[in-house]
Amino acid sequence: MVEVHLPRSAVRATKVALKEVNYRIRPFAQNVFISRAELKQEQDGSVADRQSSGEAVGKAKEPEPEPEPYSAQKPPWFPVRPVAVKDNIATADLPTTCASGILKNHQSPFEASVVEQLRSTGAPIIGKTNMDEFGMGSHSTNSFFGTVTNPPPFDRLSVGGSSGGSAVAVAQKLVDIAIGTDTGGSVRLPAAYSGVVGFKPSYGLISRWGVVPYANSLDTVGILARSCKQVFKTFVSMQEHDPKDPTSLSEKSRMRAFTSGSNRWRELSDQNFKDFHKLRIGVPEQYNIFELDGRTRQSWQRTLMLFQDLGCTIVPISLPNTQQALPAYYILAMAEAASNLSKYDGVRYGTRSQSSDGAGDVLYSESRGEGFGDEVKRRILLGSYALSSDAIDNYFIKAQKVRRLVQQDFDRVFSMPNPLRDPEQFDLSEMDESILLNNKLGPSQVDLIVCPTSPTPAPNLDDIANQRPVDAYINDVFTVPASMAGLPAISVPLKRRPTDSPRFDGMQIIGQYSDDYRVIFVAHELEKLLKIDNASGQWRKENRESLN
Amino acid sequence: MARIAPRVLRSYLFGGQVPARGCLRRSPVRSPALQRYHGTQAPLAETNSAPSISIPFRKQLKDEAKRRKVEGFGKKAKKDNQKLEDWELTVGIEIHAQLNTARKLFSSAASTINDVPNTHVALFDVAMPGSQPAFQKETLIPALRAALALNCTIQKTSKFDRKHYMHWDQPSGYQITQYYEPFAKDGHITLYAHDGIAKEDGDRIDIGIKQIQMEQDTAKTISQPGDIHLLDFNRVGLPLIEIITLPQIHHPSTAAAMVRKIQIILNSVDACVLGLQSGGLRADVNVSVRRRDGEEGENEYSGVKGLGKRTEIKNLSSFKAVEDAIIAERDRQIGVLDAGGKIEGETRGWTIGSTETRRLRGKEGEVDYRYMPDPDLGPVIIGQDLIDHLHESLGVLPDHEINILVDDYGLTTKDAMSLVSLNEGGRHEYFRNVVDELQRLAPKQDLKEAGRLAGNWVLHEMGGLSNVEVDEEDPLRMTSDGDCIIPSTELAQLVHYLDTSKITGKSAKKVLSELFSSGRSKSTKDLIDEAGLWFTPLSVAEYEELARSILDMKVVEQILAGKDGKINFLVGQMMRKDGDGRVDPQKATVVLKKLIEEFRE
Q: What is the ipTM of this complex?
């Protein structure tokens, strides 16, 4: 039984003297970090234990011992683990730059709720990870502080983005857990490319207070770790209502959502294994696209076979609006981004151009021109255009409608009702022709959807450099629909065979809104199945021929 | 409809946490009767802003009367009038008023007016990266009161949108406002002749209100020499309402009257802070003209079709500026069109004291605000119970108050207007106190009778009092609670003595002036005692003696000849002769008739 840790209640008592933390800023190997707290390392590489922290050079890096009542409650299974946090999440000790020139020296005066929650569990935050500027990118190349890279010999492969620094920090075992943000796949994609687990929760379950927004209606705080178990524990410790975040799901709604059928999946134990074979797993036919890499398709098949072997039912499903999801996503995300980024003018914080504010006749054009990178500027322009009075009807409004259709697609295929919406009657006559009907009652419904995280494994950075900017957006085609609908999704890494580069595929499990626990649980099972399968060599022997 | 004083409301609505400031401030002592029935505005704590909020109604009335007289005589025949016969002016107004709330619209920072700069600023107010808005639902209360007072339909669901433009006083680069779904729509306001509307608009005119929206204020810029601008973020994020009227105003003076009336209404329902003149209220006007006889204009604004191309004049901060700017812009547009030119849709500015509007930016320089629903803020759902409650507690609006004074208290409209507008409503409170006391002293007296009596003394007799030594604006020192140098109970007593013929009218005026100069130290009764002013009725013998002394045989003969009316002349003579005002005309008539009859023989 998992005891839910109560983070915020403990946090005030454990708050460290944050300003005293010594930290280093760049450069770090592979540009993984933008800033790092100086922690005293024990010989075994683990973080210095609490007693010695007083004498440590970089003192006050860990929390003071918690007061008795809380330490008594503290779950024994949650040891102090070093954590890295993406640099668009505010910390009061380390700078928060969003990997942007305009915030290159920005020291946040407050701390994000998720950071407070992490600290209250005793986890030291050892650094702020590099990323695409303001989360805008899929390869962690758009950073003011340089591209995040894998260690050689894979240093020319994309680490994915935008939470690339977080993914590499976990993959390289610099930390056990890293926090990222996922707007359209920014946690899942780097997790898939870097071979770690990346989880994006349902929208509104984890507080965004202190998370510098890219697109508020899509942004979620995600978790990267080397195992689903760690993802699960971290998720449990951060999943609570935050009154400071107006989009945080209320306590009442959580109660309703978590007791509507999926609650039994809240425990990560084998008790539930007996229900596993009852799972109906959906395979969206629209995801079987031309651009899908051959071996990624094989990995997908392998995953489905593993589920099938355990008795799960594999069901083809149709999500007819998938094609429109990607362009609609980019319109919405850029529109919101253009709006959110208008606050960076160098007046109150951030860098400011030496030349006059009004130079070139437009206020702040110099400061913003110098501070933002190219991709950010591109998205501000596109977003501003999508919102302009001439274009809003054809772009922004249409994209909102597509978003609603994408949500309806998911609500139609999931057997669990969406707790945020009234049940909807789907009229068969209005249904897209591509939707297969199970019987005269309508299309079949499923518990979860399994699909690749990305159509290809990690691409080469040199190829990316030669792409048009819009080509890079295709990487998000499988991750964006879940973001548009606010659904929980997790990416589980599959080692590719043969193990020449690139080495990983990501397999994504998507669930209905608030079905987060089951999504992590099934990912955890998949993780175990893959381990057994890899060890036994069954996969190679039995299935390879049938696939080829 | 019982009127609950806003102060009482406040005390249970928010645990008494709403600041007593601006139009909410009032001193703690109030008569229970007034708490029940009505309340009015109170003085401001800040001396610099106090005079500006009161509208000089008396002056307005006088000016209004004067103007109408002048126009009535048709002396204002100028060449412009010829023009105005050919052209019709159309004006729509947007009024921004700062809501009277304890906190900002989207943060829990306190709303203050003149505090040390940058001392009430939350993270969200300065758009600190990662901070999020927290809608303060208490701000809805004054906003809803304003909307209800302006007869709007409250929208059950409203939403917040971002309006993008960059300026240093706008930290986020956008203002959060309600563009697509405002919280109140389809209201109207009725303006009467006494509000100062143009003669052409007749006795009353209804102006439609398209919508009222909530939005954020900007930071205050304090400009220093050397092109340095200091920013005070205390003001940023304060809640405003923007009231948008339909383009249904056709005369500059009606526009000014409309702004003035909205301010009076907002004050009376405790919705706003400060007045137009002191910056708590700002107005933008849209002006267009079209030929009366020509074809209809091509433009449609707020659903009103056939209008001429309009221009917008921004940031008008006084009633006079509203009126003058409209006149100047009207004349400019007519001039341009007469000369064969075209009106450009542009934004123009106005400087006080100027005679012309000036171009600020044209259409090509017009900002595209790129309105977008705020993705952090959910819809605002307003329950019917809240609307009902606020509707019931809204109380009596100024127009209704005047109707009560006219219909129930027997005052003239003019007197009623003066009463509610003087001393920020204090005179009205005082009046009600006097009437209440009179009703206590003479329970059988008709309310209209008591009202007229009290009205005469409170307005006209007391209005004539002045301090010889010091030239004071308000010699009575009337507070908005209806407290002044002459206690209301003493005045009521005096009026009662007069009404029951215990003293004469002449004596009463003498006593009033004594009450004023003695400054609360003596009671009415003492003063009458001291001066021996108690009225002792004349005996019949005294009447006869008095009558004989003035009898004029000529008149007597005329009366005997049948001209009965002449007897009044003699009564008047008697009253004049007596000098102390003790002669009762009826008794005098009886005595006189008797004497004259004696002559008949």
A: 0.86
> Which residue among A193, A215, A250 closes a domain?
A250
- Taking the Cβ of residue A384 and every Cβ of chain B, the question of whether any pair is shorter than 8 Å is answered with yes
Distance set, CA A475 to CA A465, A480, B84 (Å):
14, 9, 67
Identify whether residues A136 and A12 lie together within a single domain: yes
Q: Which residue has the tokens 């605000």?
A: B369
Give the per-residue pLDDT at A533. Answer: 82
Tally of structural domains, chain A: 2
Under-70 pLDDT residues of chain B: 1-83, 274-280, 295, 361-366, 424, 467-473, 579-580, 601
Q: Which residues of B touch A338 (CB under 8 A)?
A: 370
| A333 in contact with B, Cβ within 8 Å | no
- What is the SS3 assignment for B465-505? CCCCCCCCCCCCCCCCCCCCCCCHHHHHHHHHHHHCCCCCH
- Same domain? For A274 and A224 the reply is no
Rounded to 10°, the helix B585-600/B540-550 angle is 60
Q: Are A216 and A104 in a shared domain?
A: yes
B167 close to A (CB below 8 A): yes
Within this chain, do residues A518 and A392 fall inside the same structural domain, yes or no? yes
Q: What is the CATH number of the domain that holds A455?
A: 3.90.1300.10
Let me know if residue A496 belongs to a domain.
no
| Nearest residue of chain B to residue A368 (CA atoms) | B166
Specify the higher pLDDT residue, B252 or A1: B252
- How many whole angstroms separate alpha carbon B100 and alpha carbon B20? 9
The band of A12, judged by pLDDT with boundaries at 50, 70 and 90, is very low
Task: Tell me what the pLDDT averaged over chain A comes to.
Answer: 82
Q: Indicate whether A257 belongs to any domain.
A: no
Chain B contacts in chain A segment 337-356 (CB below 8 A): 338-339, 341-345, 347-349
Question: Is residue A90 within 8 angstroms of chain B, CB to CB?
Answer: yes
Asked if residue A243 and residue A287 are part of one domain, the reply reads no
Asked whether residue A289 is assigned to any structural domain, the reply reads yes
Catalytic residue numbers of A?
A: 86, 162, 186
- What residues of chain B, 84 to 123, have a C-beta less than 8 Å from chain A? 123
Global confidence as pTM: 0.77
Task: Please count the CA atoms within 13 angstroms of the CA of B10 that sit on its side-chain side.
Answer: 21
* Cβ pair A247:B134 closer than 8 A: no
Q: Which two tokens stand for residue B258?
A: 């409309």
Chain B hits for A90, Cβ within 8 Å? 129-130
Looking at this protein, which amino acid is placed at residue A395?
A: Y
B378/A246 Cβ within 8 A:
yes
Å from B139 to nearest chain A CA? 17
**A289 plus A218 within the same structural domain:** no
Of A202, A227, A250, the residue at which a domain comes to its end is A250
Show the domain range for A192. 8-54+77-250
Question: Residue A110 and residue B127: Cβ atoms within 8 Å?
Answer: no
Same domain as A212, residue A324? no
Interatomic CA distance for residues B493 and B498, integer angstroms: 9
- pLDDT tens-digit map of B443-467: 888 888 888 888 888 888 887 777 6
